[in-house]
TrEMBL record:
Organism, as annotated: Nocardioides massiliensis
UniProt record similarity statement: Belongs to the ABC transporter superfamily. Drug exporter-1 (DrugE1) (TC 3.A.1.105) family.
Pfam families membership: ABC_tran
Bilayer disposition of the protein: Peripheral membrane protein
Region (Disordered): 327-355
Protein name as catalogued: ABC-2 type transport system ATP-binding protein
NCBIfam families for the chain: drrA
Length: 355
């Protein structure tokens, strides 16, 4: 399969000022990326990890400080115009809607790409149908719901039938139903149109539900890239959480679980005790837990509850970075850089417009 995105050593540094001192932020710190034709890739990472900055380099809105990338076969610096013609870009902020009606916005946008009015109208109306925007052609975008506006953004990003679509946090700010609905549409982009999709998200469930492959970024560096199933398989086992009825037997239960971990090649002392809970990661727990329960029963250790959890993408993130995605986000929120400039360039083009 052809490479739709091929990046090596991408770097982006920003200089921020704090009083008289200048500070260099390495927002993206040597990123390699490969995305094949027809893949749906989720680019996952906490706030401030460098997702948007990477996307803006790949979409030619930001010139890399170092490194190189080709997108749809074109160099993002030397062939920026060709890159822009080949891609759709739906930014985080969404399109800057004018006072025009939704259909007119979409048609104007198509004409920016060189489509005739007739072609743009035809394609636009088809997209409104596919994206579940019936009867909204003559509506003013400002009167639409959040989910409808987001789908209108996507229609604008797709009007010129790009082979590659970049979606920056497509469902942020939407209610659960609108998110689920948009997921269906994003999944349909590949099925109906054969498009390659590269989407950023900080929602684990979103990355899981939509992506063939997940690329995880943290502090400007790629920490993992694989299918969700393979990433989860790297985390050693399912989490078994035993709640022991009698506090006096917690130690005995921990010893028993520790023995099971040791048999499975793990460390005995990897068992965690938290109040009356005893936890440990057991590979293929489904096959091991019945025996464990029989042992505990034989030893007269009663359980108040038992839970077995398959590894989640958050466990993967934790194993790779030493902190959970939620903690990483809390850190980013608690430590705002006073000189942060919002990542919107003065010369930002509307969603996907060629320049
Ligand atoms: N124009 C800029 N000037 C200075 N610093 C910037 C600029 N743009 C981004 N940054 C910084 O670069 C880092 C990466 O930001 P980026 O927006 O790429 O992260 P992100 O992963 O997309 O986060 P989010 O999920 O919050 O959108 C952050 O520390 C951010 O503050």
């Amino acid at each position: 399969m052809n490479a739709m995105i091929h990046a090596r050593g991408l770097v982006q540094t920003f200089t921020t000022r704090q009083g008289k001192t200048k500070k260099e932020v390495r927002a993206v710190d040597g990123v390699d990326l490969d995305v094949a034709d027809g893949e749906v890739v989720g680019f996952l990472g906490p706030n401030g990890a460098g997702k948007t900055t990477t996307l803006r380099m790949l979409t030619t809105l930001l010139r890399p400080t170092a490194g190189e990338a080709t997108v749809a076969g074109y160099d993002v610096v030397r062939e920026a115009r060709e890159v822009r013609r080949s891609i759709g870009y739906v930014s985080q902020a969404g399109g800057a809607f004018s006072a025009a009606r939704a259909g007119d916005e979409v048609v104007d946008h198509g004409m920016l790409y060189g489509l005739s009015r007739r072609e743009a109208t035809q394609r636009g109306q088809q997209l409104f149908e596919q994206l579940d925007l019936p009867g909204l052609w003559t509506r003013m975008p400002r009167t639409m719901s959040g989910g409808q506006k987001r789908r209108l953004d996507i229609a604008m990003g797709l009007i010129h039938e790009p082979r590659l679509v970049f979606l920056d946090e497509p469902t942020t700010g939407l209610d659960p139903q609108a998110r689920a609905n948009l997921w269906d549409h994003i999944a349909g982009l590949r099925e109906r149109r054969g498009a390659t999709v590269f989407l950023t998200t900080h929602y684990l469930d979103e990355a899981d539900a939509l992506s063939d492959r997940i690329v995880i970024i943290d502090a400007g560096r790629i920490v993992a890239a694989d299918t969700s199933a393979n990433l989860k398989a790297q985390v050693a086992g399912d989490l078994v959480d035993l709640e022991i009825a009698d506090p006096a037997r917690v130690g005995d239960a921990a010893e028993r679980l520790g023995a099971l971990l040791a048999v499975n090649g793990g460390a005995r002392d990897a068992v965690q005790v938290d109040g009356q809970h005893v936890r440990g990661r057991v590979p293929r727990a489904g096959g091991e837990v019945p025996g464990l329960l029989r042992d505990l029963d034989r030893l007269g250790i009663d359980l108040a509850s038992i839970e077995v959890q398959r590894p989640t993408l958050d466990d993967v993130f934790l194993a790779l970075t030493g902190r959970s995605l939620r903690d990483a986000e809390a850190e980013a929120d608690a430590d705002p850089d006073p000189d942060d400039v919002p990542p919107v360039p003065a010369d930002a083009a509307p969603a996907g417009a060629p320049r």
